[in-house]
TrEMBL record:
Domain of life of the native organism: Bacteria
The protein's name: 4Fe-4S dicluster domain-containing protein
Family annotation (InterPro entries): 4Fe4S_Fe-S-bd, 4Fe4S_Fe_S_CS, Fe-S_Ferredoxin
Keywords: 4Fe-4S, Iron, Iron-sulfur, Metal-binding
Species this chain originates from: Dethiosulfatibacter aminovorans DSM 17477
Start and end residues of each 4Fe-4S ferredoxin-type domain: 252-280, 281-310
SUPFAM superfamilies noted in UniProt: 4Fe-4S ferredoxins
PROSITE patterns: 4FE4S_FER_1, 4FE4S_FER_2
Pfam families: Fer4_21
Molecular functions (GO terms): 4 iron, 4 sulfur cluster binding; metal ion binding
Amino acid sequence: MLYIEENKKVELMNSLNIPSLLAPYFDTFYNPDVLDVMYILVNNRLSAEEISKKLGYEAFDKIDKLYKDAIINKTSEDNAVKYELSTLFTRVNLMATFQREVWENIPDEIRKKISEWHFGEFLDRKKKLDLSDISKNQNSIVPLNEAIDYLMSSDEDIYIIPCDCKSTSENCNHSKNTCITLGKSKAPSIERGYGRKISKEEAIVILNDADKEGLIHTIESHAICNCCTCCCYPMRASKELGLETVWPKVKYVVSIDEDKCVGCGLCSNKCQRNVFSLENRKVNMNYDSCVGCGVCVNACPKEALSLMPLGKS
Ligand code: SF4
Ligand code: SF4
Ligand code: SF4
């Protein structure tokens, strides 16, 4: 085990742009015994053999572990596998999602601040993009039946991974094991060895449970998410950027048949967007807040609710 000198550690921290808030927790994110590999990769992209040669010892197992921990990334150069430093953003994401025992060792109030910093980084990246490009992505809010259709139409292997937005934000107690990925190579964390391969049947159970919980289904290229508005990075960022309804794309709006409604309030309990308000068992609707997720439709015992395609209602 080799430790690097303090001046090299400072150089490494600078290259990783460690914010002052996180500096006291640097050793939590990066164990001192991995800094020698990290330091060698500052501004470098090297193979495992090249790293080992520079270190003067065989570091293959250590390199594998650093890759799994999202401290370094794998790239391909001239058909050879090379490694480069990952970002603090990616390391925080991985730790909060897959290394809960380490993440939860950080005091609550500090975790909250780290999570705010993390979301801020995400938002800044989006702000640098052309906003019209963000809204052109294929991320859409869909009702349960469309999420299941999307799943059934895929020939890819299916994986379940914990929701990184909820794991990092920790704004609620909603279920976290809700991110369905279609294709092993489609999520970096699965490539790093996380996630669990599941059957289509299990994926359908997960989607049904998420719907009952009131989570909003979103589909995008190779993924089906089940989101809460309080944690979901895309939904929170779209609100900040004034892109609600276009990212994720809103396709439907709820409609009520007042003759069928008995004012039980089950729809209101499920809706994350506060569309419903009840007064003397009479439902009032704020249609502008509806994102057409359809969880209220499935929750209504009287079939009083339905979804109307936007633009046709
Ligand atoms: S998009 Fe939704 S389900 Fe996916 S990681 Fe974010 S909150 Fe979780
Ligand atoms: S769940 Fe259905 S019946 Fe109950 S208040 Fe909502 S719309 Fe009315
Ligand atoms: S009212 Fe709209 S946003 Fe609320 S649960 Fe129903 S479809 Fe979803």
